[in-house]
Amino acid sequence: MAGYFSVFLVLLTLGSGLIWLIDHYMFAPKRKERIALAQGATQTPLDNDVIAQIAPEPAIVEGAKSIFPMIAAITIFRSFIFEPFQIPSGSMMPTLLDGDFILVQKYTYGIKDPVWRSQMIEVGEPERGDITVFKFPLDERIDFIKRVIGLPGDRVVYRNRQLFIKPSCEAGQERKDNLICGEYNKIALDIVDREYMHGPRQLVRLSEDLSGVQHDILIDPQAAELTARYYQQPNTRVDEWVVPEDSYFVMGDNRNNSQDGRMWGFVPKENLVGKAVFIWMSFDFDNGPDSLLPGWVPTGVRFERLGNIQ
Fold it and tell me: What is the sign of the dihedral through the CA atoms of 265, 269, 273 and 278?
């Protein structure tokens, strides 16, 4: 089921629309009759104040008529076209930062009803490298954002900070998504910055070529691999996963600071919300311990980050 705010919008839209509809067909004609009778009894046109006294429009109807078009437009836009999200953590650094406000394209992976989230129209499937928002499989009240690494049928290995993918191919197919079929393809990495600083931590920034989708990732060379916490799929090694049908394997770009598919498994297709496509605002929240401002008050705007998400 969708989040509380989505349900609230739908109920508000239906409620205001129903009030307007009932009034339009049942009560508004009666008010018009009273106004017509009053107008027929006088030679001068009735002004608005007199009309309001003769046939007053209930406040609830007036409110419903005024908010229905706006609420309906917001509900349609947010449910089927774009939905705004705020990045709450650094798990997708350096691609997305804490304080980025993004737009998620809702119709990319299909059109769903805004309450129960059942598929209404099939549109497309996630592609490898997409940054996708989804309902966290272990608690669907929470929205997560990660990058799609493995597609249905793929074998994914993450070993010694290196990603390998054996794609799911049809019989006789030699390549898929720029990957060689039947082989574990080593995903290319190139060093961008050996001394990338994030707070007190020194990380390594690398460029990853995920079958044609190039993006930067962060690696903490001093952090131990948490293989003991990895999701253990039956009949596979501890750092290897086979993506089930109608599911996807996702990872964060901040590889040592991301609770992703390595820890809890796979994202079912029905949990997909949409594809992150645009940063429309980005705030700095650099309030130090001595600052008089609360931590949620922004200290600056990062205009250079606005634009399409790669």
Answer: positive
